[in-house]
């Protein structure tokens, strides 16, 4: 099939590349020239495992193209994915101006039937606005459908998630749209991945409900973790004990310093606002946010309790990205934690395998804050090591070497990456254990 993707951010670029990999012909429009120039050479402007290789291959084989020309893109195919940003506005509401702008461009340039698919995360009933906008601004009365096909990709494993979906959700209103989705996703349904057809409103709501539920699950276990510390129980035992119940499920019960990233914080806030706009108070999600924000404080209090005075202490920090497998630092716990330690006058050595360059833009290097190129260099002469992101390479660290390098063998682990019984010889602290 021929497919147009508008927007080459995380979602758009992964969607475009993976659809090309499945044998489709994809034209992806991106308005940021610097990104576009890199993409044309097969270099993604984001770090996502497996993406660069797949992009290069599909460029070479001629199945994916990039352009700034929106008219060319709209005329290229009858299937148009909207993958533009829906950032948070000051009120917490999603800012839909980019979705609106693309809808108007589609109206202006459409030259035949179009299936316009929202992939960006949008509030319920946004499809009504997209429909209305296209109808209002359309140059002629050509037929079109608007559908919602939310993405459930995790940063750091987005390519894998696209190729191995738990489910595909498509919110459609016509048989024509339904048939296009069936054809588009046939490589998956053929292998048994479920394609759930719903109304567009239900599909939009599924996305916000799913992300908010997962965020709530994380805050729930983090609250239990705090109780565990008070009563001397290991939170991992609780996670296992409840997770084995299939109704609860074992995933997303890792206690620690809470969630960050470009999705959960923004989507939870937007969902609270959506409920409010419909006269409902989503207290459950407000509490989810509150617990999550507090986990950073809990971690910092722990640091202070252990080190007493942070000023002039040499502190190594492992992990700056909001999660492993990405260079993304949006809403990362590391921002608040490093920020507070800087304020306290600590001497910091930071290491992250991918996210250091992004972090440097927020926290430039100075004599009290240095970035190092490998995890061991961060440890020289350190009074303590803080673990903020659970990269595999930290779990695989040579602990004897770690101990030898540090001035004091103190580890404060915000992600519970080591089993406490393996930590003899260290003063080892973690979350809820
Ligand atoms: C999330 C969802 O998992 C995806 O399904 C969704 O498509 C995506 O948002 C989106 O809306 O685009 P993502 O934010 O990339 O994906 O990453 P997650 O793996 O969900 O992690 C989010 C945060 O929760 C991270 O900070 C992670 O460290 C934290 N987390 C996750 C925990 O603290 N504990 C856990 O058990 C799991």
Would you give an account of this structure?
This protein is an alpha/beta fold and 433 residues long. It folds into 2 domains: 2-198, 3-Layer(aba) Sandwich (Rossmann fold), CATH 3.40.50; 200-433, 3-Layer(aba) Sandwich (Rossmann fold), CATH 3.40.50.720. Helix content is 44%, strand content 14%. The protein has helices at residues 10-21, 33-40, 51-60, 70-76, 97-109, 126-137, 158-163, 175-184, 186-189, 200-231, 235-243, 264-277, 283-307, 333-343, 356-362, 392-395, 399-405, and strands spanning 2-6, 25-29, 64-67, 79-82, 114-118, 144-148, 168-171, 195-198, 314-318, 347-351, 369-371, 384-387, 410-413, 427-429. Strand 10 (347-351), helix 15 (356-362) and strand 11 (369-371) form a beta-alpha-beta unit. It is globular. Uridine-5'-diphosphate-glucuronic acid binds next to helix 10.
């Amino acid at each position: 099939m021929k497919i147009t993707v508008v927007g080459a951010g995380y979602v758009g670029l992964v969607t475009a590349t993976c659809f090309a990999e499945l044998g489709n012909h994809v034209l992806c429009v991106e308005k940021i020239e610097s990104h576009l120039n890199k993409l044309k050479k097969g270099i993604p402007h984001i770090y996502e495992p497996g993406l660069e290789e797949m992009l290069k291959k599909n460029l070479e084989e001629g199945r994916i193209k990039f352009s700034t020309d929106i008219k060319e893109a709209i005329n290229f195919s009858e299937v148009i994915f909207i993958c533009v940003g829906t950032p948070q506005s000051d009120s917490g509401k999603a800012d839909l101006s980019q979705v609106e702008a693309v809808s108007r461009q589609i109206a202006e340039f459409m030259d035949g039937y179009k299936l316009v698919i929202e992939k960006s995360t949008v509030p319920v009933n946004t499809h009504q606005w997209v429909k209305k906008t296209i109808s209002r601004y359309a140059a002629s009365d050509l037929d079109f459908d608007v559908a919602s096909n939310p993405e459930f990709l995790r940063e750091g494993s987005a390519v894998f998630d696209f190729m191995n979906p738990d489910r595909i959700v498509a919110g459609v209103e016509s048989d024509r749209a339904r048939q296009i989705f069936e054809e588009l996703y046939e490589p998956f349904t053929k292998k048994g991945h479920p394609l759930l057809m719903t109304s567009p409103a239900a599909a939009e709501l599924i996305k916000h409900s799913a992300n908010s539920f997962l965020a709530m699950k994380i805050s729930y276990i983090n609250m239990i973790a705090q109780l565990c510390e008070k009563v001397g129980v290991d939170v991992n035992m609780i996670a296992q004990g409840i997770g084995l119940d299939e109704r609860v499920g074992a995933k997303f019960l890792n206690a620690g310093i809470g969630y960050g990233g470009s999705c959960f914080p923004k989507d939870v806030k937007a969902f609270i606002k959506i409920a409010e706009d419909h006269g409902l108070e989503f207290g459950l999600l407000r509490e989810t946010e509150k617990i999550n924000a507090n986990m950073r404080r809990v971690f910092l209090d722990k640091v202070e309790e252990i080190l007493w005075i942070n000023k002039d202490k040499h502190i190594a920090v492992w992990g700056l990205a909001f999660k492993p497998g990405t260079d993304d630092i949006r809403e990362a716990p590391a921002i608040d934690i490093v920020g507070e330690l800087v304020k306290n006058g600590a001497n910091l050595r930071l290491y992250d395998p991918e996210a250091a360059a992004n972090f440097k833009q927020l926290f430039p290097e100075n004599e009290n804050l240095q970035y190092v190129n490998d995890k061991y260099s961060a440890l020289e002469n350190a009074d303590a090591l803080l673990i903020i992101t659970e990269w595999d390479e930290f779990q695989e660290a040579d602990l004897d070497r770690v101990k030898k390098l540090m001035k004091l063998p103190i580890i404060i682990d915000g992600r519970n990456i080591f089993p406490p019984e393996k930590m003899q010889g260290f003063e080892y602290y973690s979350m809820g254990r």
